[in-house]
Amino acid sequence: MALMASKKDTITVRKTIKSFVILIAALMLLGACGQAAEISTAAQPSQTAPSVSPSESQAAPTPIVTTRPDNTQTAQPSVTDEPSPSAVTTPPKTTEKPAQPSSSRPPVSAASGTPLSGIVIGIDPGHQAHANSEQEPVAPGSDETKKKVSSGTQGRFTGVAEYKVNLQVGLKLKDLLTGLGAEVVMTRESNDVNISNKERAEMMNAAGADLVIRIHCNGNDDQSVHGAFMLVPSNDCTSSINDASKKAGRRIIDAFCAVTGAKNLGLQARSDQTGFNWSTVPVCNIEMGYMTNEDEDKLLVSDDYQTLCAQGIANGIADYFG
Asked: Which domains does the chain have, with CATH numbers?
């Protein structure tokens, strides 16, 4: 009985040891699996994008700055330099508005010296306070006659008479030309005079003027017509001065329009002007604008614009003699 009990105890111990060994093995196996799982998890790359600071990011593209194109165009009408002698002083009809003067253009000055020193310039502000309907020959030896002085036009919107504007610009021009060294001869310096067109031309001939500029404004039944142009002589009796007059006229009208911004209507040749036909010195007649056009009427009576008109004429004269 003792032997049998001892054997039974031995078997029980062995079973206990075996169970303990199995338990230890299981625990070890579970630990190995857990470690493998941790290693596998650590080996997987992160799926979360790293945070990038603004300074490390790619710079945003610089916006392209575009400049609005300049759609302003200066209309250049087709005006023949040598129209027929019967050409009228009315340029082609246009509906565009007159250009406004540019304030960026520099004024005429004598800062660079006296480029017109020794030059005699005649200025004839057209018309006068009272017209003279008496007749005089339109040219030497001609049987054709014209009024000695017509009344001229006036502002349709301002009511200002042309002869006043002509003199105001003429006096400003005198000051500018004197500052440039020129000797200036005026046909008139007031509105209350009575001097015919023939007498004005003869006055300039006697003064030995190197160039005469006649100053006028224009009018038209069509209120939309605007712009500036230059009349030049073309009669056979003025053949000795026609070329020089045309050259001076071109320089002056181009400079005038460059300064004032007025539409440049070019040159028109005339054989029927008394003030041309009696002249023996180069002469041209500027029509500064239309006093029947609302915009030009208001410009022509303004002091600032008249200064620009005088500046433009002076620039052209200096260019001609330069």
From this structure: 120-321 (3.40.630.40)
